[in-house]
Amino acid sequence: MIAYGLRAALLAAALLTPGSLRAQSEAACARDVLVAGSMQRQAVEQLESGGDDDASRCRVWQRHVETMRRIAGVYGRCLSGPERTERLGQVQSSEKEFSGLLRTRCRGL
Q1: How far is Cα 23 from Cα 64, in angstroms, rounded to an integer?
Q2: What is the predicted pLDDT for the residue at 21?
Q3: pLDDT digits (tens, 9 = 90+) for 75-106
Q4: What's residue 3's pLDDT?
Q5: 0.90 cut: is pTM over it?
Q6: 46, 63 in Cβ contact below 8 A?
Q7: Do the domain assignments include residue 56?
Q8: Rounded to an integer, what distance in angstroms lies between the CA atom of residue 61 and that of residue 81?
Q9: Residues 93, 62, 38, 52, Cα dihedral to 10°
Q10: Are the C-beta atoms of 102 and 65 separated by less than 8 Å?
Q11: pLDDT at 6
């Protein structure tokens, strides 16, 4: 029984080497970037469908800003080089634009 526990502990330690942790992190980032891209497309579609009145537009804009912030976190963590610069710039620019609209057009709603 003790030998089994020791064997399991050694196996767990071997699986958690820096290389395997890096591979797990890369796999998680690949998945996260894919999901973030999908979220970005959905957010744009929601903006295009907009709302019928100021209150509904403000809700759509608020969700958009929150989504862009989450996506920026993923892109900042998982991408590098020119792709990181381009994608992060897109979502940060969109977040800034709609945050401004929220401040100027959605007060009191």
Answers
A1: 32
A2: 45
A3: 999 999 999 999 999 999 999 999 999 999 99
A4: 55
A5: no
A6: yes
A7: yes
A8: 29
A9: -110
A10: yes
A11: 53
Take residue 16 and report the two structure tokens written for it: 């958690």
Tokens of 42: 């959905």
Asked whether residue 80 is domain-assigned, the answer is yes
Q: What is the maximum alpha-carbon separation in the chain?
A: 69
Gyration radius of the chain over CA positions: 21
Determine, yes or no, domain membership for 4.
no
Q: For 96, which DSSP code? A: H
What mean pLDDT is predicted for residues 4-28? 57
Beta-carbon count within 10 A of 16 CB: 11
Angle between the 18-49 and 54-78 helix axes, to the nearest 10 degrees?
A: 160
Give CA–CA dist 65/71, Å, rounded: 10
Domain extent, residue 57, equals 25-105
Residue 101 lies in a domain: yes
The domain total for the chain is 1
pLDDT at 9 over 60: no
Q: In angstroms, rounded to a whole number, what is the distance separating the alpha carbons of residues 23 and 31?
A: 12
Query: Does the pLDDT value for residue 25 go beyond 80?
Result: yes
